[in-house]
Amino acid sequence: MQDKLTKEELKSFFLNMKKEGLDVGIKLKMPNQKEPEIIMNYNSSIDVKLEYYLNTYDDNLVHKNNPEIQIIDMIGTSIPF
């Protein structure tokens, strides 16, 4: 993906992955961490997680309570476990 994602891109991506039956991986820029954090979301949880991300992050996918946290990438995948 790209460096600066928007809330609309996240929403569209999640809904497309739900339709395709894929799980979603989210890459986060985190404070005090050299490497990004990766969170995996099962396809069956997409609606709940999408609602969480839409409520917790601003239009530029920066965390509303901590501006050092930002969603920087997404991937559709199948979680192996």
Describe this structure in words.
The protein is of the alpha+beta class and 81 residues long. Helix content is 31%, strand content 25%. The protein has two helices and three strands, in the order αββαβ. Strands 2-1-3 form a three-stranded antiparallel sheet. A hairpin with a 7-residue loop joins β1 and β2. α1 runs antiparallel to α2. The radius of gyration is 12 Å and the shape is globular.
Could you name the key traits of this structure?
single chain; 81 residues; alpha+beta; three-stranded antiparallel beta sheet; 3 strands; globular
Layout: helices, strands, pairs:
Elements: H1 7-20, E1 23-29, E2 37-41, H2 46-56, E3 70-77
Antiparallel strand pairs: 1-2, 1-3
Helix pairs in contact: 1-2
Summarize the structure.
By secondary structure, the chain is α+β, with helices and mostly antiparallel strands. It has helices spanning 7-20, 46-56; strands at residues 23-29, 37-41, 70-77. The longest helix is centred in the first third of the chain and has 14 residues, at 7-20.
**Poorly predicted runs of 5 or more residues:** none
Roughly what fraction of the amino acids lie in strands? 15-25%
Average residue-wise pLDDT: 94
SSE order in H/E notation? HEEHE
How many β-strand runs? 3
> What spatial form do the alpha-carbon principal axes imply?
globular
Strand count, sense and barrel status of the largest sheet are: 3 strands, antiparallel
- DSSP helix count? 2
Order of strands, widest sheet: 2-1-3
Question: Share of helix among residues?
Answer: 25-40%
What gap, in angstroms, lies between the N and C termini?
24 Å
Structural class: alpha+beta
